[in-house]
Amino acid sequence: MQRRALIQAGALLTASAAAGGVQAGEKAAPAAAVVNMTGVGLPIITEGRVRNYVFIVLKLHLGAGHTVEAVRAKEAWLRDALVRAGHRTPFVLPDTWVALDTAALSASLIRSAATLVGRGAVTRVEVVSQTPRRRTGMQGV
């Protein structure tokens, strides 16, 4: 019985010493700050008509020196700017009504974040998912 306890104690000490050595010798790099934006609905507009809506989930990667709290405080304004840009110049792909142009959407949101939150606040916009209201492609073109 004591032999089993001794073996378990030795294994526990070895594991804790190894974990402590990694923490003391090498500091972990800070994780990049990310803000998730869910449920933003953007229109697909062609020939002056709303053809479909696509609901997107975004992940905003923040730049150095910008906090998650500062960007979350402006999230409503960022959503508004994105929806306004989506109506003014739709993020439409030429061959489908069920997906958005992610490059144009990303560039627009980064420009809006620079004016609303500060230059370099959002360095990258990742489109996590796109869910169209209607799942059909182009109709009656």
Automatic annotation (TrEMBL):
Keywords: Signal
Signal peptide: 1-24
Top-rank lineage group of the source organism: Bacteria
UniProt protein name: Uncharacterized protein
